[in-house]
Structure formats: structure tokens, C-alpha cells
Amino acid sequence: MLLFFYAPDLLNFMKAYLGQDLAFYGVFEPMVALIKVASIGALIVLSPWFAFRISQALRAVFGFSLTFVSLFFFTSFILFFTGVLFCFFVTLPFGIHFLLQFGSDTVRPIIGVGKFVNFTGFFLLGFGTIFELPLIMVIITRTGVADAEFFKKNRRYAILIVAILAAVLTPTPDVFNMSLMGIPLYFLYEIGIIFSR
Asked: 10 Å Cβ neighbour count for 85?
């Protein structure tokens, strides 16, 4: 609830790269949008707590060492924040700028605050989650489901999956913006292989 009072400032920060004001099309839309902004902010701020709870569960279920669980905890929220920041400062500005270029003198963009918040929140949380890929791979190998050799042998399938995820998680379908997601994601896959050994 505390973040709700800062939601207007957070929304102004989120739309800084738009270069225009947002519109609303219903009497409740601004309030609902601010609640969503506060909720997105809460999920991001509370990500260390989620990482801590997951690390505790992993230790209880699989008996991982305290050292491994501690590394998982710190690495998890670092990767999540990296994904969120990468999305906000790199992918979203480029993607939205590309989309707005389709406007003209007769077709001008009027962006609704509700759809903008949904759009931005989806990509911020999506990128933060996807950047956890190396940790997911390490957990898979530690639990014996697969090993590093499995990931090495299936690189071509990984490239295909990365391409699909990049197409889904980037705001535009052009090759440049897909590369902004695809290249880091494949790089994370290779990091996951290294730490899975």
C-alpha cells in the first residue's frame, strides 16, 4: 500500500521516454492504472523476498548446502533486477520509438494509461523472469534432471526457443529489437552451461 502513494511519481518515471502525456478513457482508469503501477513496483521491490523464500524451499526439498542456497539467493535477485533494468532502459525505449514511427500527420498516437501500464509491466516482469535462465539451468543439473552435456547437445533447440521468446517478449517484430532480447538470452544460456558443469 505504501507504494500506492508513490505511484504517480513511478508512472511519470515509466513514461519519461514517451515524450507525451497519457490519456484515459474511463473514470476509473487512472485509479486502476495507479494500483497496477504500485503492484508492479511491489513485485519488483519484493523480488529479494521471493528469492529468499524459493532458496529456503530448495534447501528444504533438495537438501542443498547453505553456501549454494546463499549464492542462489543473491544471484537470483541480481539477475531479476538486471533483466528489469535492461528492459526499461534498452528494449522498451527502442521498441516504443519504433512503434510510434508508424504515426503520421493524420494518425497521431494517443496512448491510454491503462494499456501503457499493462504493456510496460508485462515486459518489465517478463524480462526480469527470463533473465533467471542460468539459475534455472543450474537447478535442473543439481537436481539430476539433466546435465551440462544435455544443454550443449541441444543448443540448436535452445536457439529456436530463444528466437520464439524474443519474438514474444519484444514489443516490436523487427530484427533489431528481437536481437536486443535474443542475444542476451542466448548469452545467459551459455553462462548457464558453464555454471552447470
From this structure: 14
Distances (CA, A) of 191 to 78, 133, 158: 15, 9, 13
d(CA 165, CA 111) in angstroms, rounded, equals 26
Rg of the chain, C-alpha, whole Å? 19
CA distance 84 to 81: 5
Mapped onto helix, strand or coil, the DSSP state of residue 131 is: coil
pLDDT in tens, 103-157: 666 777 788 899 889 989 988 998 899 899 999 999 999 888 888 899 999 999 9
Q: What is the pTM of this model?
A: 0.85
Contacts of 178 (CB under 8 A, 6+ apart): 163, 166, 167, 170
Contact 130, 185 (CB under 8 A): yes
| Secondary-structure percent of the chain, ordered helix, strand, coil, rounded to 5 | 75, 0, 20
Angle (nearest 5°) at CA 58 between 67 and 138: 70
Residue appearing with cell numbers 508512472: 11
Helix axis angle, 113-130 to 66-86, nearest 10°: 140
Give the closest residue to 44 by CA, choosing from 8, 12, 87: 87
Q: Between vectors from CA 182 to CA 140 and to CA 152, what angle results, nearest 5°?
A: 40
pLDDT in tens, 30-53: 899 999 999 999 999 999 899 899
